């Protein structure tokens, strides 16, 4: 069972995960690209179980590490410090934000497989990429709750996926294993399980309005059977055509 969770990236997803982890009794090490000093207010708000560090320090000190960064920044992850670690990848590929990556556009790799290639000595697990930050917190439920939601995971290492499943359980979610990283496209943007099931009906709006709207929406419970069903109906489309969930 993980005792210390390292977070590389302290944006909205990273912050939501940190709050859930502290509430679950985990020690949390937060980091970002701007330095530990920029995280003082966040750490103070999280309480005594949280501290700030550099990404390399967080990677070395944690039992599990979450990479909560935009895909375009994957090359900045400290590969040496992450060697031998399980790394949970929350990133999604949006060409309009990340720039076009030919291997992803052509479907030759999934975004998590690209990260795994960079972190050749780590065990990458795709996780937490299908849910918006506010719903990550509002939909968390204790194990066995009738309205508990599930989130998809994918990875090439069975032990790493087991560790990710235990973490999800501690944070309030069941896990649905989609298989190896090559199958993680089933939870990527523009697939049936991505974001919308956890929100219900989403009106058309721009990115800023979408984020504000999600912060006022409690979300919709999506049980494991439904996640499995939605992932099974996915059809692989060109990754370069993916849109932000707020874009109509």
TrEMBL record:
GO terms for molecular function: oxidoreductase activity. Residues 5-93 form the Pyrroline-5-carboxylate reductase catalytic N-terminal domain. Transmembrane segments: none annotated. InterPro entries: NAD(P)-bd_dom_sf (IPR036291), P5C_Rdtase_cat_N (IPR028939), STEAP_metalloreductase (IPR051267). This is Predicted dinucleotide-binding enzymes. Pfam families: F420_oxidored (PF03807). SUPFAM superfamilies: NAD(P)-binding Rossmann-fold domains. Keywords: Oxidoreductase. It comes from Nonomuraea gerenzanensis.
């Amino acid at each position: 069972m993980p005792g210390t969770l390292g977070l590389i990236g302290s944006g909205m997803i990273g912050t939501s995960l940190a709050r859930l982890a502290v509430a679950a009794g985990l020690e949390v090490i937060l980091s970002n690209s701007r330095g530990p000093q920029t995280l003082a207010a966040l750490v103070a708000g999280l309480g005594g179980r949280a501290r700030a560090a550099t990404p390399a320090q967080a990677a070395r000190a944690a039992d599990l590490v979450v990479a909560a960064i935009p895909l375009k920044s994957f090359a900045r992850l400290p590969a040496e410090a992450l060697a031998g670690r399980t790394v949970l990848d929350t990133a999604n590929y949006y060409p309009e934000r990340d720039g076009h990556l030919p291997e992803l556009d052509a479907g030759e790799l999934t975004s998590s497989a690209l990260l795994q290639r960079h972190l050749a000595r780590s065990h990458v697990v795709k996780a937490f990429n299908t849910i918006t930050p506010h719903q990550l917190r509002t939909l968390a439920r204790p194990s066995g709750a009738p309205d508990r939601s599930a989130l998809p995971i994918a990875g090439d290492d069975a032990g790493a996926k087991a560790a990710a499943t235990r973490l999800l359980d501690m944070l309030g979610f069941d896990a649905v294993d989609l298989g190896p990283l090559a199958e993680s496209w089933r939870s990527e943007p523009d697939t049936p399980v991505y974001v919308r099931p956890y929100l219900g009906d989403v009106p058309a709006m721009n990115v800023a309005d979408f984020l504000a709207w999600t912060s006022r929406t409690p979300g919709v419970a999506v049980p494991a059977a439904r996640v499995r069903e939605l992932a099974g109906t996915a059809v692989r489309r060109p990754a370069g055509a993916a849109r932000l969930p707020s874009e109509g």
